[in-house]
Amino acid sequence: MLPFSAGAVEPDEILDDPVLEARAREISKDLRCVVCQNQDIDSSNAGVARDLRLLVRERLVAGDTDAEVVDFVQARYGDFVLLKPPFKPETYPLWLAPGVFFLIGTGAVFTVLRSSRKRAVEGTLSDDEEGTIAALLDDEAGEKS
């Protein structure tokens, strides 16, 4: 059943050895299709993803460990090919950007809320102002009668 569980893996790509095939599937879950960008290579129908799947299987058949296969692909395509890139200076923006955007959004929400509260307080009338307005309205009502 395992060989038929992936979406884009073609029958001619599947290895005869079920242990190697299972290892290839595990490695493929962590490799990004460089065309589709948010899909692992097992789920992508892109030609590059197929080439990567074949490359992974070729390296496994050659006797590489899982880490060696990932290192080989990473050396060829860079950190971008990893769905979970390492935390290092080159990838700091990638890892830290969501937190920065969250803080900016939270700050914007608090600023808007504070501004609306200030407007609500400024919008209320003092007792003197209410008395003046009531007197003007009474004068106007008296003139109409």
Automatic annotation (TrEMBL):
Coiled-coil annotated residue ranges, if any: none
A Pfam family of this chain: CcmH
Superkingdom field: Bacteria
InterPro entries: C-type_cytochrome_biogenesis, CcmH/CycL/Ccl2/NrfF_N, CcmH/CycL/NrfF/Ccl2_sf
One of the record's GO cellular component terms: plasma membrane
Signal peptide: none
Residue ranges of domain CcmH/CycL/Ccl2/NrfF N-terminal in the record: 2-137
UniProt keyword annotations, A-Z: Heme, Iron, Membrane, Metal-binding, Signal, Transmembrane, Transmembrane helix
Transmembrane regions listed in the UniProt entry: 92-113
Task performed by this protein: Possible subunit of a heme lyase.
Family: Belongs to the CcmH/CycL/Ccl2/NrfF family.
Stated name of the protein: Cytochrome c-type biogenesis protein
Natural source organism: Pseudooceanicola sediminis
